[in-house]
Amino acid sequence: MASVNPFDLSDSEEEAERRPNETVDTERSPSDGAPGPPPGNLFSPPADAEPPTLLLSSNRTSPSGEGISARVSVDVIAAQLLRDQYILTALEFHTELLEAGRELPRLRDYFSNPGNFERQSGTPPAKDQVLGPGGPLNRAGSISTLDSLDFARYSDDGNRESDERVAESEVASQERKNFKSSPEIQEPIRQLEKRALNFLVNEYLLKNEYKLSSITFSDENDDQDFELWDDVGLNIPKPPDLLHLYRNCGTPLPSPRDTVDVSVGVNFGDLPGNCIPQDPPKKPDLLQQQQTEVVQELEYQISLLNNEKQSLAEQIKKLQRFVLLKLSPAFLQALLSFCRMCSDSRLGAEVSRIADSEESVMLMLGRCLPHIVPNVLLAKREELIPLILCTACLHPEPKERDQLLHILFNLIKRPDDEQRQMILTGCVAFARHVGPTRVEAELLPQCWEQINHKYPERRLLVAEACGALAPYLPKEIRSSLVLSMLQQMLAEDKADMVREAVVKSLGIIMGYIDDPDKYSQGFELMLLSLGDPSERVVSAVHQVFIPAFAAWTTELGTLHTTLIPSLLARIEKLLMQGEHGLDEHKLHVFLSALQSLIPPLFAVVLQNAPFTSRAKLDGDTPAIEVTRFPRPASPLQDVATIIGSREMLSALLLLYDHQLELEGTTGWDSLLWVVNQLLPQLIDIVSRINVTSSTCVHEFSRFFWRFCRTFGKIFTNTKVKPQFQEILRLSEENVDASAGNDILTKATVPIYATGVLTCYNQEEDRKLLVGFLEDVMTTLSLSHAPLDSLKASFVELGANPVYHELLLTVLWYGVVHTSALVRCTAARMFELLVKGVNETLVAQRVVPALITLSSDPEISVRISTIPAFGTIMETVTQKELLERVKMQLASFLEDPQYQDQHSLHMEIIRTFGRVGPNAEPRFRDEFVLPHLHKLALANNSQAVESKRIDIATQLFEAYSALSCCFISEEVMVNHFLPGLRCLRADMEQLSPEHEVILSSMIKECEIKVENRGMADAQGSMSIASSLVGEDAKTKFLSKMGQLTTSGAMLANVFQRKK
C-alpha cells in the first residue's frame, strides 16, 4: 500500500482512471448551457475546478427529467476525505461518529491499519530527476494513529534521509547485480554485506521466538553489536526485515506521491457590479494625505532610478576600458579562472547566489539550516532556535516547514530545563504567529512522534508542549486528541518527572475545556493521578489539576452538586468496605482531594451570596490578615486568586461576616448546602472511622482545621461547633455502649478537639478546649469506658509543643480529682505525654505529678503510674531525674506492702519488657535484670496457679525482648541465666514447648560464656547473635513467633497444658 502524507492536501488524480465506468449527471448553467465537469467521480473535480463540496442541494437532471434534492451519505463523505488525503478531517469525522454511536467501518479499518501511516525512506532524487505522482519524497509530517507511529525513524541529527547517501558503487549496485545473477556466478560476500545480513538474520530470529538460536548467533559474531544498526557501518537507514524483503522479492517499495499546495483567489472583476465594494467619498484631509504619500513614493522611485543610473554608468566605463584594451572575452574568462572560486558544490552554489528578497532569504535558510544544525555543538544549539522558528513561520513550502520543526524538536538529544523552556517559548511564539490550524497541522505531529521516545527529557518536552500550546489549539483538538494523548502518558510513562508535567498540562487543558461531556473523564483522571506512587506527581495534582478542575466545575455549576458529593460517596463506600480493615491510602487520596476543594467551595459561597452585587472596590477596604486563611498549596488555591483580587476578596469578607452575624442565611443556597448537607455528612463519616488509627484521625483533623479556618471564626462558632456539641452531650449516659450511645468513644472526640477547637488560639478558645478535654476524661473514667478517644486527642495535640502546657493543665485537673478513677486515667495519660515534652517540663510538671499519684491512697492509682515512670526511664537523660524515678520504682518492688500485689508486679514486668531494650544500659544491667531475676525466683513459689501463669507470661515476653540486648558477662552469669532457669522451672510444669525454647537459650548462653572465658573478653554480647546454629536460630524464632503473639494466647496455652 502506498504511503500518503495526510498533512498535504491534494485532489485525487487517479480516481478517474480507477473508476472509468461511473458517471454522474452534469450541472448546466441556466445562462449558457455550458457542460459541467467531465464524467468521473463526483468528488474528484479537475485541477481548475472549484473545491469539492460534500453536501449538495442542487437541481440535478434525473432520468425522468425532474429536479431532485441529493444528499450524500456519510460513507461517501468518508471515502472522499480519505481519497483526497484530508486525513485530519477524516480523523475528526471518525471521532465524532464514534461519540455519536455511529461507527463507520471504512474509517475504522483505515485508522486501525498501521500500513496507512508508515513513512517511506529512500535516497532523494537527483537534480535532473523528474518526480511524477509516485516519485520519491523526503519525509513529511503526517497524522497517524498513536499506536502506528514509527517514532524511531529519525535520529537526533535531523533528517537523515536527506543527508546520508548510500555508497552506490560499493553496496547498492553490487546488491542489484548479485540479486539478478545466478548463484553460480555470484561474487564472494563482502564484509559490510555480511554485517548487514547478520543484523537482519538476528532480528528475524528474535521476532520469531528463536531466542536460543539468536543467543548462539550473537556469540558466534561477537564483533558486532546487534542492538544498533549503525554498528553495521553502512550510512543508510535500516532496511525492512527479512520477511518484508522476501515478500517484495527485490521490488522497490512505492514512494509517497509528491504534493503541491494550491490556493484559490477571487478576481473582483469577475463579480457582479453590485458585489464590488464601493469606496466611500473621501474627505479632503484624507485625499491630501494620500496625495502626499504618492509624491513620497515617486520621489523614492526616482532615487532608486538615479542609483541604478550611476551603477549602469560605472559598468559602461568598465566595458569601455575593456574595449580600449581590446581583450577577447575568452581570454578574460581564462584570466579570471586563476581566481580560486568554487561554485559547483552545494555550499558554493549557495554562496555564489545572494538572496535578493525576503522570500529568497527564507528559501536559502530552509536549504542551509539542515546542514548547519548537525555541525553546531550540542551545548550551543539553542542559539539556533530563533533562526529555525522564523524560517518555519515564513517558509512557503509545507515540506520544508515540517522538516524545520522536526529539527527543532530533535535539536538537542536530552534537553535540560533551560533548553526545554527555550524550545517551548519558541513553540508558543510560533503558535501565536501562525494560528490554530497550522499549530494542529504542523506542531502537534512533532509531539506525537516523540510521545514514546527513549529519553525521558524528550517525553517531558512533549508533555510540557501540550500544556503550553493548549490556548492556541482548536477547541475540538484540545478536548479530544491532546487530552487522550496526555491520558495515555499519565497511565503508561514510567518517569516521575514526565507524569508530573502531564498532570500540570492536564490542569491547563481543564482550564480551557468547554465540553461538559468531558467531566467524567476529568474526574477519573483526577483519581488516577491522586493514586500515583510518586509524591511529586500527587503534589502537582493538588497544586494545578484540582484547582483547574474545580474552576471548570464551578463554571458548570457542579462543584457542590456533583464533584464534592462524588468524593463523599467514595469515602462512605470505603468505610463500609473497610469494616475488617480500612484502606487508609485510598481514604487519604479522597480526603486530600476534598481538602483541596475547600478554597473553591468558599469562593462559590462568596460569589453566590445575597450581598455579592453590593461589593464595591474603594480605598477604605481593610487589608486581609495574613493568618485569615491557611497557607495555600499553590497560587491556584489562594481564595484571592480564585475571586480575582485581594481587594475584591476583602470587600466580600466584610459583607460575609456581617451577613452571618446579623442578617442570617436565608436565600443563601450555597451556604445552606454546606451547613445542612455537607457538615452533617462529614460528622457522620467521622463517627465511623477507627479511633485507634492515628493516620485517619490526623487526616480528618487537618481537614476540619482547614475547613473552619477558611470559612471563618463566625461560621465556626455559629455553624460548626453547635453541630458537634449537639451529638457530644457530655454525660455518663452518653457512653452507655449497651444502648448504642457511645459517641464519646468514637473518633468524633479527637477530631472535634484537634480539628475544630484548635482553629483559633485566643484565651476563650483555649479555655473551651481545656474544659472539653477535662469533661471527656471525667465522663469516660466514671463510666469505665475505653480511653481510646482521649488518648487519640492527647497524641494529636501532643505532637505540637504549643499545646503541652494546656495538656499538663488538663492532667493536673485529673491528678487532684476526687475520684480515683479519674486519677488513674490521668496517670495513664502521662505515659503518652512524656515522649513529646521537653525534659524541663518533665522535671517540673510531670515527675512531681507522678510522685504525688504514686503515694495515692488507692493502690490502683499507684499502679497506674508505673508505665509513665518506665517511659521516663526510656526517654530522659538527666541523671538526677532518672535517680528519682529509679527510687520510686524500687519502692514499688522492695516495699513489703507491695509484696503480694499481683497487679503491680504484672505492670512492672510489662513495663520492663517494653522499655528495657531502649533504656540506659546501666539502668538495665543494675536495676531491670536483677529485679526480673527476683520476680522469676519468687514466682517459683507462687501457690495460686492463675497468678503464676500470668507472671510467667509476662516474664517470657520480657526476656524475649531483652534477649536482643548487649549484656555484660557478669550480669549474664549472675542475673540473666539464673532468671531464665527460674522461668524454665515454671515452664516444665506449665508448657513443655516453652521449656524446650528456654533450655535451648540457656544452653547457648552457657556455651557462649564458656567460650568467652577462654578467649579475650569483649565486654558485651548479644543473645540473638549467640544462637550459632541456623537450625537452632530458625527453631527459636519460629517458636517465638508462635508463642509471643499476645499474652492472652500464651495464657491459653498454659491452661491447655495443665
TrEMBL record:
HEAT-type repeats, residues: 846-884
Protein name: LisH domain and HEAT repeat-containing protein KIAA1468
Coiled coil: 288-322
Gene3D superfamilies: Leucine-rich Repeat Variant
Source domain of life: Eukaryota
Location(s), subcellular: Golgi apparatus, trans-Golgi network; Recycling endosome
GO annotations of cellular component type: recycling endosome; trans-Golgi network
UniProt feature, compositional bias: Polar residues: 55-64, 113-123
Species of the source: Dicentrarchus labrax
Entry keywords, A to Z: Coiled coil, Endosome, Golgi apparatus, Lipid transport, Repeat, Transport
Stretch list, region Disordered: 1-67, 111-139, 154-184
Database matches in InterPro entries: ARM-like, ARM-type_fold, HEAT_type_2, LisH, RELCH
Main location: Golgi
A biological-process GO annotation: intracellular cholesterol transport
Biased composition (Basic and acidic residues): 16-30, 154-178
